[in-house]
Design goal:
The complex is a heterotetramer of chains A (about 475), B (about 100), C (about 325) and D (about 170). Chain A is built from 20 helices and two strands. Chain A is mainly alpha-helical. With about 100 residues, chain B is mostly helical. Chain B has three helices and no strands. The longest helix of chain B has about 30 residues. Chain C has about 325 residues and is mainly alpha-helical. Chain C has one domain. Chain C contains 15 helices and no strands. In chain C, helix 4 runs parallel beside helix 12, helix 7 runs antiparallel to helix 10 and helix 10 runs antiparallel to helix 15. The radius of gyration of chain C is 20 Å and the shape is globular. Classes of the chains: A mainly alpha (about 475), B mainly alpha (about 100), C mainly alpha (about 325), D mainly alpha (about 170). Chains B and D meet through helix 1, helix 2 and helix 3 of B and helix 1, helix 2, helix 3, helix 4 and helix 6 of D.
Chain lengths: ~475, ~100, ~325, ~170
């Protein structure tokens, strides 16, 4: 297979991103660029889905992998991006950011994510991660006229650059210990020497920072709050999925057997911390956007449970969970963005949601679906994802971890359901009149809800196939 | 000839100085410069390892890390300018939201 | 890297000595030529034809009071004037003046030149900042912006030359022009290089850094005596250096036009004398060009300078680079 | 000879680094960092990485740090008053943390000290421009193209954040 075809989704997105830039330079309307962006992502998504069923291997002299996990990662990333971009138009228009360069920024960051999610070399891992991060720093600072936006960007940037230092040192030490940067070549020669372990530890610190795991989560709430809501969804899903897929690739390809245990222990501790702290602080939040930020920290914890298992089953669970998390989280953020669009940027306090469910029932019901799914209640995809992740942990013998995870997710029911209580069972103190959502927006959100429902019941359907597809990548 | 460990030790010292600088300074620009120092220390290690292995990958990685540092500098300084417009200060303790 | 021998030191020493003197000559030339262009005589009192005028100038500068502004940052204020002089002097190390006549041949000499040139901006910028005066600061800021901006087209133009040579050694660049000067092969690159070199040395039409009408003296408003003298010296040294670079990269270095086709074999000494004469002659011509332009072309506005750099020269230089690379790859392949 | 050069450069690098984090004046910090970068470039030369030494000066000292200086001068950042007056505990914590990390790094580096303590002779060949260019456009092509995307994104992003609307220029300078 030709190298470019192996990375075709990324190439398409990169080309579209550059064309979008040129169109912006020649003063084409933002709507044209918006349309082009969606078309590009759709095209890339089509290619990535086709590649799901193709063969897998390495390309660009071993720098990246294609097919299998990488393709699935690409699908999840592109799906998250697609939905985030589709729902962005109305919201960004409201805050005067419906502009071509914003969309090209998003596209360029997707290129980074795709490279990250197919990295087979520490160099391409590092570059993918940095391309993504640098774009995200900018996206975090888009609302620069308000203090929150600029401060979020500054905080994200300084901590992110700091973390990059650790990450790079980790890569340097691993390179020093093994003399290679290619994941599989490292795995072939790696011995658990002090230097290799030190490098791994620093690399883990960097990765934990980027996924917002608990000792390194300080940036998450502020950044998620300061970013335009639909783009928060983008950051919380696509970016996180990319990092997790890269994490899966590193764990499954780079680590020699003897080292997996040590990593697993570290990840277990971090997973427990992340789930507990994320959920506990989320309980105390009165701001829905901030609450979702902490909930996304908690979800990173659930994902880490699957990684802690360190088995093919665990990795499968993580990948499935990423898909589930992407669909439901973008959905939830979209509805919040819809409310915000009507009432101004600060309209995220939970008090103000009182009675909104009946004003525009469709959105209220959809938000409830997404929140139910985020809790992990059975007929929704969130439950299936959690089931696979925790089952993998139990099968790997990590029963305490799984129990803590289940308890934490039970606790999370409180703050998710609280939003619904406000939506439907509290009387609104003011007369709100909501603008109707645009057709594109509604259909995107309805589609996400349909996916949430469909994949929630898919495992019991006779023709279910997603989980088999993912697990087939590891049975080879 | 000096052993490779001396180069690594120098790199570790510089990296640590960078970390301490990030932690004690309050001026966002200086913090950022300390991060650059850290990246530089890492580059030094990479080149030492590259010399030690007689392998070129380390030097290639340094080249990319230089590009990343340049990109980060551009974006970072733009963010610092944006925050200065809002706050008229680059002191991170005056950035209200920042709770380290 | 070639071995450094006694000869290299001798060449380096001579070159540095000549460079320092050439700055003085350039000052004299500037004043005389400016006089001619403006229909007046120019300095003609000190010595025959006023030839000793530079020495008198230096004496005057040394004898003046050295003023350091009260609220300035003293240390940086003192260091700043030294930087441009040092960077100018460092450049000489890799320039070949004739066949085999060079101080050293670094295999990345072109990068060395660019690296050293990129350090020159510190002098002007720091001088502007350390003076603690708004005119100086504005001058320094303009200098930083302008020099960074024009480094890119300059670098791209040089890169397009390197494509022909296939080596980053300056000596190889000179040798490769024995038959065809690069100005004939790469005229666009040559023009870009010349414009960018003018901007890099902060000469008219790009002397926004010291635009008298707006900024008094620009970055050196608060400088006097020998510190000012250093800046003055550095400016002319940069003029000479940039002339040398133009000669080296585009105008055949020490070769006569198409020398490879018609120039007979010569003895080493004769060849050396011829080479150095040719090189000096070309350099002198470009110094003259610098002076000529200064006294005939008015100054740009700052936004025009930026626009020219970023949205004209840079794309043009990139296109030029790509076209040349394409032609070389598809038609000459290797 | 090489040992003396290394000791000189190392001392210079450490001194300037310390000076950078302890200096109150932002411009001085930036200049000390420039010196630090140049001395590290010198160390690269000792390691036979000539190309990277030059690139280090060209990119870091010549471009990135000028940008820093430019921003510092543009914002006219005041001197930080009271570097050591407040937050003594914070400094202590920072220092301890730094020492701990340093110890850990040294400890993990300890693994190599008793191995082959010399610069490999192959280095002389691989540090040159030719050798790097050779693999750059073959083995590392993907990373190279990613760098192009990265830099484009950085430029666009910087403009997106730093530019401000011209129409309400009344409130901004």
């Amino acid at each position: 297979m030709h190298d470019i075809i192996a990375f075709l989704p990324g190439v398409i997105i990169a080309v579209v991103g550059l064309i979008a830039l040129l169109m912006e330079a020649y003063k084409k309307s933002a709507d044209q660029i918006y349309g082009l962006t969606i078309a590009g992502i759709l095209a890339a998504l089509g290619v990535a889905i086709a590649a799901l069923f193709g063969d897998s291997g390495t390309a660009f002299t071993g720098m990246i992998v294609y097919g299998g996990v990488a393709s699935f990662g690409a699908v999840v990333i592109l799906l998250g991006s697609l939905f985030s971009v589709v729902v962005s138009r109305d919201y960004l228009m409201e805050i005067d950011l419906h502009r071509g360069d914003v969309y090209s920024m998003i596209l360029l960051s997707i290129v980074g994510m795709l490279a990250l999610a197919s990295a087979n070399d520490l160099i391409s891992f590092f570059l993918g991660l940095e391309t993504m991060s640098i774009c995200l720093y900018v996206i975090a600072g888009l609302i620069k006229d308000k203090k929150t936006g600029a401060e979020a960007a500054l905080k994200y940037f300084l901590l992110g650059a700091f973390a990059t230092g650790f990450l790079l040192y980790g890569i340097a030490l691993i390179y020093g210990a093994t003399g290679h940067t290619n994941l599989t070549e490292i795995a072939a020669v790696a011995e658990p020497t002090l230097m290799f372990m030190g490098g791994s530890a620093l690399l883990l610190v960097g990765i934990f920072f980027k996924i917002g795991a608990v000792p390194f989560h300080m940036w998450t709430p502020d950044v998620y709050q300061g970013t335009p809501t639909t783009l928060t969804a983008f950051m919380a899903t696509a970016a996180k999925s990319a990092t997790f897929v890269a994490f899966v690739l590193i764990m499954s390809r780079m680590l020699p057997e003897s080292d997996t245990d040590i990593w697993t222990n570290v990840i277990q501790v971090v997973a427990i911390l992340t789930m507990v702290v994320g959920n506990l602080i989320a309980l105390a939040q009165d701001n829905v956007k901030r609450m979702l930020a902490y909930s996304s920290i908690a979800h990173a914890g659930y994902l880490l449970v699957g990684l802690a298992a360190g088995t093919p089953e665990g990795f499968t669970g993580v990948l499935y969970y990423l898909f589930a998390y992407t669909v439901m989280n973008v959905g939830a953020f979209s509805v919040i963005a819809y409310y915000e669009r009507n009432k101004g940027l600060d309209f995220t306090e939970i008090e103000s949601y009182a009675g909104l469910g009946f004003k525009f029932p469709l959105m209220g019901v959809l938000l409830s679906i997404f929140l139910f799914s985020l809790v992990g209640i059975p007929p929704f995809v969130g439950f299936v994802g959690k089931y696979y992740v925790f089952a993998a942990a139990i099968n790997a013998g990590l029963i305490p971890l799984a129990i803590i995870g289940v308890l934490a997710s039970a606790a999370s029911a409180y703050y998710y359901l609280r939003v619904m209580v406000y939506l439907f069972f509290k009387d609104s103190h003011k007369e709100y009149s909501l603008k109707p959502a645009s057709l594109l927006f509604s259909s995107a959100v309805v589609l996400m809800a349909a996916l949430t429902l469909y994949y929630g019941i898919e495992p019991v359907l006779p023709f279910s196939g997603l989980i088999e597809l993912i697990s087939s990548y590891y049975s080879l | 000839m000096i052993g490779i460990d001396w180069y690594l030790a120098l790199s570790a010292i510089l990296f640590t100085i960078g970390i301490i600088g990030v932690l004690i300074r309050r001026n966002a620009i200086v913090i950022f410069m300390c991060v650059e120092l850290m990246l530089n220390a890492v580059n030094l290690s990479l080149i030492s390892f590259s010399a030690y292995h007689g392998d070129i990958a380390g030097q290639i990685l340094v080249f990319f890390s230089l590009s990343v540092a340049a990109a980060e500098a551009v974006v970072g300084l733009a963010i610092i300018i944006a925050i200065f417009r809002n706050n008229l200060s680059v002191d991170i303790t005056k950035v209200n939201l920042l709770r380290w | 890297m070639t071995e450094i021998t006694i000869t290299s030191y001798i060449i380096l020493g001579t070159a540095l000595f000549m460079l320092l003197n050439s700055a003085a000559v350039a000052v004299y030339a500037e004043r005389r030529i400016a006089g001619r262009i403006q229909n007046r005589v120019g300095p003609n009192r000190v010595g025959p034809f006023g030839l000793l005028q530079p020495i008198a100038d230096v004496l005057k500068l040394i004898l003046k009071e050295d003023v350091t502004p009260h609220n300035s940052y003293k240390l940086i204020h003192t260091i700043a004037p030294i930087i441009p002089v040092v960077t100018a002097l460092m450049t000489v190390a890799v320039i070949p003046f004739g066949e085999g006549i060079y101080a050293t041949d670094i295999n990345a000499g072109v990068l060395y030149l660019l690296a050293v040139a990129s350090l020159g901006v510190y002098g002007v910028t720091l001088a502007g900042w350390a003076s603690n005066s708004k005119y100086s600061l504005l001058g320094g800021l303009r200098a930083a912006a302008q020099m960074i901006s024009y480094e890119l087209p300059l670098g791209m133009a040089v890169a397009s030359v390197v494509l022909f040579v296939g080596s980053l050694s300056v000596v190889d660049v000179a040798v490769a022009q024995e038959n065809w000067w690069f100005v004939f092969l790469n005229p666009v690159g040559a023009i870009i290089f010349i414009i960018a070199a003018f901007a890099e040395s902060n000469r008219t039409p790009f002397d926004l850094v010291e635009a008298e009408q707006e900024l008094v003296g620009g970055f050196h408003t608060e400088y006097s005596s020998m510190k000012f003298g250093m800046f003055f010296l550095a400016e002319y040294m940069h003029v000479v250096i940039n002339s040398m670079l133009m000669t080296t990269f585009f105008f055949g270095s020490y070769h006569l036009p198409f020398a490879g086709y018609w120039l007979p074999e010569m003895g080493t000494a004769a060849k050396a004398i011829l080479d150095i004469t040719v090189f000096t002659g070309k350099t002198a011509f470009f110094v003259f060009l610098f002076i000529w332009v200064r006294w005939t072309i008015p100054r740009f506005k700052f936004n025009q300078v930026m626009k020219l750099g970023w949205s004209r020269l840079l794309p043009l230089s990139i296109i030029n680079f790509i076209v040349i690379a394409g032609i070389l790859f598809f038609f000459f392949n290797g | 000879m090489e040992t003396y050069a290394f000791v000189l450069l190392a001392v210079l690098a450490i001194a300037t680094a310390l000076g950078m984090i302890l200096n109150k004046n932002t411009v001085n910090s930036a200049l000390l960092l420039v010196l630090n970068l140049v001395s590290i470039a010198g160390v690269y030369l000792l390691l036979q990485a000539q190309f990277l030494a030059l690139i280090q000066i060209l990119v870091y000292a010549g471009a990135i740090m000028v940008l820093f200086l430019f921003v510092i001068m543009l914002l006219n950042v005041d001197e930080e008053e009271s570097l050591f007056d407040k937050f003594r505990i914070k400094y202590l914590v920072a220092f301890l943390l730094g020492v701990v990390i340093f110890g850990q790094i040294l400890y993990s580096l300890g693994g190599v000290t008793d191995m082959l303590p010399e610069v490999s002779s192959e280095m002389v060949q691989i540090g040159t421009v030719e050798a790097i260019a050779e693999v750059f456009y073959t083995d590392y092509l993907f990373a190279f193209e990613m760098t192009a995307i990265l830099l484009t994104a950085a430029v666009v992003g910087a403009l997106l954040i730093a530019q401000y609307k011209v129409k309400d220029s009344g409130e901004t300078e």
